[in-house]
Amino acid sequence: MVSHKCVDEFGYKGYLLPANARAPRSARKRRSFEKEISEDDHQMCAIDLLATVAENVLFGNESSLMSIDNGIESNCVVSRISVKEEFPVEEEEPVKPVTSMSPCGFSSVINAKAENEADGFSNSGAGDSCQVGSFGEDVKPGVDGGEVVLDARPDVVVSLGSSSRTKVPPMGNGAMDDVNLFSRDDDENFSGYICPRVTKKPPRSVPRIGDRRIRKILASRHWKGGSRHSDAKSWRNYHLHHQRSYPIKKRRHFDHISDSFSDDYRLRTKMQRGSRTISSMKGQGATFVSSDSHVRLRIKSFRVPELFVEIPETATVGSLKRMVMEAVSSLLSDGHRVGLMVQGKKVRDDNKTLHQTGISQDNDHLDSLDFSLEPSSEKPQLLSSNPAGHVCEELPMCHASDMVTVFKSEHDSALYPSDSFGMKTATDDSKVLVPVGLTDLSPRPPCRKSKRSEQQQQTAQRRMRRPFSVAEVEALVQAVEKLGTGRWRDVKLRAFEDADHRTYVDLKDKWKTLVHTAKISPQQRRGEPVPQELLNRVLNAHGYWLQQHMQLLESTNSKLQQETLPQAEALLLL
DNA sequence: ATTAGGG
DNA sequence: CCCTAAT
How far apart are CA A502 and CA A466, in angstroms? Predict the structure, then answer.
């Protein structure tokens, strides 16, 4: 039964009972208030995973802008590799005048990766071409200068089945059923970089991922779950978690989602004195004057976040590899753009030449550049009320000259709750396996029936977490004060009309947690603190409306009795 | 489609 | 947040 306590504790001043106020649904068993999402402060120990975004395609086709000096096979996806960017000295077609780093540099590389994923990843039946375990070590010690570390933060957990009873099918049959891949970076940890869709996307042929129609199908409890989940639903879980963990996972068929990949990747690089070409641009006009001097950059490695792998002993090595592969390939898939910082300043103008930007072989003090991978789809924005949010711009970037700083900034960032990330050496981080080429064994539904729905299931994902701001809470409280609880649709219309990402269910849920928050001690609260004043109003309103509902219930009850009693008497008389 | 509540 | 039951 509903407790009357609150009624006694709070006054009703200022509240008006709308004529249409509804009585609470029959007294459902009311459990203790929802437990605040309690995510441990999972640590995010990044592991150095040498990523081979290799692919000839990626690193330059004919012109081969970059060369992978690790001798990586093209079909390798992950492995510590070193990529060296070199500008041909006397090649045919000097790769266009190199005017901008982003367009013809890493950016294209990374994006190209997605385009060739099919070829590069699934085509690698000869997975052995990619050696595992080479990461962590400098492949080419001799090469000094530019080193770039791609550092991805998402804390991913790969869980392959688990329970002892689960029997993992022999590898090679593609029946990877018991797989879980989820992110430990659940809930709280995404807070800083939520990126609600700002601009409406053009009509899409497929329901957007945020669509409840799709999400509905998905299980929920597994998001936070760990290895304990296994068995039959594992396949689905895998995909769920997978999607969750990697919002950037390629969604070629389903358009992008507003979710941004909150975790950025970083690139550390060092400028290297380049070789001067024999004015290959000669005669092409003054425009290219600055292009005859080349800058060499070398991507030493890509850092990938730690991958936790939990897998039953009975699972096959192949299945394990596959999982890691999936995770990594997703990371590298797409949805990112490259950011560039020169001497601490972000370079936004893609049309500037390197020289104009200060990236010059003659610039001695410019010994480092900062690259970052950022969500490319949208301008991040914290709230609808903060249209000008430029979270992206604030993404911490790594600086080649100061690893400590790098780690520190990461450490300090709310984005990275981990307290140990980055402190590990590359070698330490390398404990995670490096998958071999992706064969045709990617996890599949036990039986494919309705391709369509299944496709949707695969791409559907949990909505990103979007903590309510104080302003939003304020609006919510005000609306509830006015409208009461139980009229969430009205609340939505009244106070969150323009906040597409706030459904009335969200508001209802938020109110629920607000009430809970208000009842617990400040020490137990988490997240952005809500002003006590607001919480007081929450309790007040909650108490008031609860009381109203109670009264309404009683009145209806008495009415019922008045109607029922006579009938009962009449029945007795018969 | 909404609402209430449990997970 | 998600999901379901009940409206």
Answer: 9
